[in-house]
Design goal:
Elements (H helix, E strand, L loop, with lengths): L1 E5 L5 H9 L9 E8 L3 E2 L2 E2 L2 E6 L3 H16 L2 E9 L1 E3 L4 E9 L2 H17 L3 E6 L5 E3 L23
Helix pairs in contact: 2-3
């Protein structure tokens, strides 16, 4: 498992290609990826920029814990999460989740579990900028309507 939280823009497909080269050949039957990009709207309003804040160290530990839980719940061989923080603009990738497994169903379920955690509970704080220059904190993220409430759990304290 690899978790990266960085300010720099990234190419999610290059990240998957590069990481996959470190995996043992022929062992996984599928890789499922999710790439989240910044939208130019939220809650019915236009958005021209966004800034993401996080707690360095704590955020990575939380994401590592949820990836480890996914590996325990499903037959996952490996996972990769790359998440940006800082300033970003519409269409830029914000997050990549990639999960390798022997079978597709396990990879799909684990990938959905990880991204739902990132969207709903990970310690990131979003501040959007409107075309008029107004800055506003995002109070809630879009919930996955197909996710069960218990599908996304809060990890144990990361400072242990």
């Amino acid at each position: 498992m690899k978790v990266v939280v960085q300010a720099e823009a990234f190419d999610p497909y290059e990240e998957v290609r590069r990481y996959e080269q470190t995996l043992e050949k022929g062992k996984h039957g599928g890789v499922v990826t999710f790439v989240g990009t910044m939208r130019d709207f939220n809650d019915g309003q236009d958005v021209v920029a966004m800034s993401l804040d996080h707690y360095p160290g704590m955020t990575e530990k939380h994401i590592e814990q949820v990836c480890a839980e996914a590996e325990q719940r499903w037959d996952v061989m490996d996972s990769l999460v790359v998440h940006r923080y800082g300033d970003m603009y519409p269409s830029e990738p914000i997050v990549l989740v990639a999960v390798w497994s022997a079978h597709r169903a396990e990879a799909f379920d684990a990938c959905r579990f990880i991204i739902n955690y990132l969207k709903e509970r990970a310690p990131f704080w979003k501040r959007e900028t409107t075309p008029a220059g107004e800055k506003r904190w995002v109070e809630h993220n879009t919930r996955d309507p197909k996710a069960e409430v218990n599908d996304v759990v809060a990890p144990a304290r990361a400072d242990n």
